[in-house]
Specification:
The complex is a heterodimer. Chain A is built from five helices and six strands; from the N terminus they run H-E-H-E-H-E-H-E-E-E-H. By secondary structure, chain A is of the alpha/beta class. The termini of chain B are far apart. The chains are: A alpha/beta, B alpha+beta. Strand 6 of chain A pairs parallel with strand 5 of chain B, so a sheet runs across the interface.
Chain lengths: 288, 140
């Protein structure tokens, strides 16, 4: 029957799309579980190093590390952690909107900004902006990023800080609230804000440093910054998979709805054609 | 009862050990150290080597670490292990690379698009090869 040929092909094509989105949903769901595990696995380190930094802040070292000293802010560094791929709902655009509002605020304060991006989406976005100075980027880290992948980007920023090129360093990434909610957050990395931490260790004391305070603190603070950024990256990965899962579920549902509607239209057209044919036959028979 | 101290060994990618121990041995930069409970506050860098956690006289666990940090509080020993062997020059090279990538992308804004289309082409080629493979197998 020639009726509704177009509608039938349309339904078939939507069904194909639905198959793809459903497959992507399931892939994202299984990846999300893995990335979430990975996110949880990195937490102990982050917690421990934060604890040590806290202890350190309460000690009374003779040596003051530059990472702990507040400076007048003329130029800031920003590390943006984004995903490598799209099709994950508003995850990246929300993050970029947050970063843009930060950038405009800094610009109105007369503060210049250097940006480093992690993830190809961020790289594409910030390179296309006119007033943004992108000094480093890394992407295509995959689902199992390693700490040593992002060392380069961080070192770039830390060196800039040590050379007084930037006076503050921030990181923007998505926070995994739950599967349905991901929140873009900004965290200040440098100078390390140690004053806001309440302590249990009191009295005048200091560590025994080996080999010396400068070297140990250098090492420790670098690791601390790295661990925060790495944590952000791993968390962002989990967010990406969760967002993609939700987006693809929405897409599959929409496709299902569309198919239902089209099927209804198709059935109606088919019914009308049959009715018409019958009435024609009956009319013909009556005429004879 | 013998005195014990809480020991945590963590690396950036996972938790390795957490529990009470009688003594911890670690390869500090200036030589191997043994930490007993109620040691004075102490912080040092670690060399690649073996960390040994003595839980009881008979029971002790060895771990290999490729460098890291050791922090000692009277009641707490924390070892932050590095996951990979790190050298200053490797860090430097990674930094240079990240910078070069940014410059490249800025100089050639079409580059990213080209990459994506190339990637799509590559995927297509792989799929084609795979199909051919399957067809060949069926033909045999």
């Amino acid at each position: 029957m020639a009726v509704g040929k177009e509608i039938r092909t349309k339904i078939a094509s939507i069904k194909n799309t639905q198959k793809i989105t459903r497959a992507m949903e399931m892939v994202a769901a299984s990846k999300m579980r893995k990335t979430k595990d990975r996110m949880q696995a990195t937490r102990p380190y982050a917690r421990k190093i934060a604890q040590i930094i806290k202890h350190l802040a309460q000690a009374n070292p003779e040596y003051k590390h530059p990472f702990l000293i507040q400076r007048e802010v003329k130029r800031v560094g920003l590390i943006v952690v984004s995903s490598d791929r799209g099709l994950c709902g508003g995850l990246n655009s929300n993050l970029f909107r947050k970063s843009l509002s930060l950038l405009t605020q800094w610009r109105s304060d007369g503060v210049e900004v250097d940006v480093c991006t992690i993830g190809t989406k961020g790289a594409g976005f910030f390179c296309s902006l006119k007033h943004v100075n992108v000094i480093g980027q890394i992407g295509k880290l995959g689902d199992t990023p390693h700490l040593h992948d992002i060392v380069g980007v961080i070192k770039l920023m830390l060196d800039a800080y040590s050379e007084n090129k930037i006076d503050e360093l921030y990181v923007v990434s998505n926070e995994f609230v739950n599967t349905m909610t991901q929140r873009p957050t900004v965290e200040k990395l440098l100078p390390v804000a140690a004053n806001d931490i309440e302590g249990s260790l009191t009295g005048h004391w200091d560590y025994i440093y080996e080999p010396d305070a400068k070297e140990v603190l250098d090492h420790l603070l670098t690791r601390y910054i790295e661990s925060i950024v790495y944590q952000g990256l791993v968390e962002n990965n989990a967010c990406e998979q969760a967002a993609r899962m939700v987006a693809m579920k929405g897409a599959s549902d929409n496709a299902g709805k569309l198919i239902k509607e089209l099927q209804l239209v198709y059935n109606k057209a088919r019914q009308a054609a049959i009715t018409q044919e019958i009435s024609e036959i009956v009319a013909g028979a009556a005429a004879v | 009862m013998t005195m014990t101290v809480h020991v945590d060994i963590v690396s950036a990618e996972k938790e390795i050990f957490s529990g009470l121990a009688e003594m911890v041995f670690a390869p500090a930069e200036l030589g191997e150290v043994g930490i007993s409970p109620r040691h004075a506050p102490f912080i040092t860098k670690l060399n690649p080597g073996e960390v040994r956690v003595k839980v009881t006289d008979k029971e002790s666990y060895p771990f290999f670490i490729s460098g890291g940090m050791l922090e000692v509080q009277p009641h707490l020993v924390t070892i932050l292990a590095d996951t990979a062997i790190r050298a200053k020059d490797i860090d430097e090279a990674a930094a240079m690379e990240a910078k070069a990538r940014a410059e490249e992308a800025l100089a050639d804004k079409t580059g990213k698009i080209d990459y994506e289309s190339a990637h799509a082409q590559l995927l297509q080629a792989i799929m084609q090869l795979r199909t051919l493979d399957r067809l060949r197998k069926r033909g045999e």
